[in-house]
Write a structure and sequence with these properties.
about 190 residues; mainly alpha; 6 helices; 4 strands; about 5% strand; globular; DUF2878 domain-containing protein; transmembrane; membrane; transmembrane helix; DUF2878
Length: about 190
């Protein structure tokens, strides 16, 4: 159930954020995203690893989406509030935060297959952004659109394997920690 709950929950966040932004509303995506992330972290085997991964994912989101917004390669519906002002809208950062929870659940298989994470990032991310543009207009790539799409493909080709690697590393670190504590006390 953890796999399916995570997969379906992430999709609910994505659709809520994208459709809400298309209607000029930030709060639906942020609210549903925050509730989903909280639910995932409360149920996590290693919550500290989840928090670390979430912070990294949101930081990457601020940089990647910020470059997209600041260069005007793309414009976002419901662009305010943003971090920093004029940068990444909160609704898309809610998607990034929610995405971070998939790497130890529904996308856990990518932790051992970084080449696949790279491929899915390079191909899947631009397709998701195009879906948000064509389906609802919550993200609009400015012409020539190849600039923004190339940025997304290259950024996600780095971000996805990096986050998958960190998920594997931090989960294994926290898994070993109780054993190390027991060993040092003996």
């Amino acid at each position: 159930m953890n796999f399916w709950g995570n997969l379906i929950g992430y999709q609910v966040v994505w659709f809520t954020a994208v459709i809400g932004a298309a209607h000029g509303k930030t709060w639906p995506g942020v609210t549903v995203g925050a509730l989903f992330v909280l639910w995932q972290i409360l149920r996590a085997d290693y919550p500290y690893a989840e928090w670390r991964l979430l912070i990294c994912a949101v930081t990457l989101g601020i940089v990647i989406e910020g470059v997209l917004a600041r260069t005007s390669w793309a414009t976002y519906a419901a662009s305010a509030p943003a971090i920093p002002p004029g940068g990444a809208p909160l609704w898309i950062l809610a998607i990034w935060a929610s995405f971070s929870t998939t790497l130890n659940r529904s996308l856990a298989y990518l932790r051992e297959r970084l080449w696949l994470a790279w491929l899915l990032g390079a191909i899947g991310a631009p397709l998701a952004y195009l879906g948000a543009q064509r389906g609802w207009g919550s993200v609009v790539f400015q012409q020539p659109s190849w600039r923004g799409l190339t940025w997304i493909a290259c950024s996600w080709a780095v971000a996805m394997p990096l986050l998958a690697f960190l998920a594997r590393r931090w989960t294994s670190l926290y898994r070993l920690k109780p054993a190390l504590i027991r060993t040092t006390k003996s």
